[in-house]
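Here is a tokenized protein:
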Amino acid sequence: MASYRIAVVVGSLRRDSFNRQLARALQSLAPQAFELQTVEIGDLPLYNQDDDAAPAAPVVRLKREIAGSDGVIFVTPEYNRSIPGVLKNAIDHASRPYGQSAWAGKPAGILGVSIGAIGTACAQQHLRCMLSYLEMPVLGQPEVYLQYKEGLLTTDGRIGEASRDFLQTWMDRYVDWVKQHAPRREEGFAPHAGGETEAPRPRPS
């Protein structure tokens, strides 16, 4: 079995999203001991604090998958100089109820691709601020602001030659980051399942 399970959260719902393609391709850069699993966020209802006591099934699943992971990779586009609403909605869901965040302590990495000249730089800065507040140790370097160009991804879904070495360096750094912050998953061991994790407490609204 994999020694480390990494939840991959894609901030786009578009079927052929560049970021979704990038997320799928990342597994080829990860060592055998790391299993990357994409977490579905498109079926989540809009966050409503009234539902905290009886969350919908997709919310329960989201929190379980995040809590059961050893780390989280966010792959996000940039909308209007920030992250997409669907990603913010997922972050809010898994951080609540008050004091029961599934995100706390999970080593995080951030990547993103867009057609703009600065990639997803602004979105990533907003996301870093959120994740820091949620007590997620976030990999600082190298930063990955990819501008989509032909050849970034191959026709068979792999990382193109021009970006492969850079993204491999990022993956190697993220692997080391996870090992620094997450215990190795052994047979019979599972990360804290969530629901009791003390984390920054968003005040009731």
Remarks:
- The CA atoms of residues 105 and 136 lie 5 Å apart.
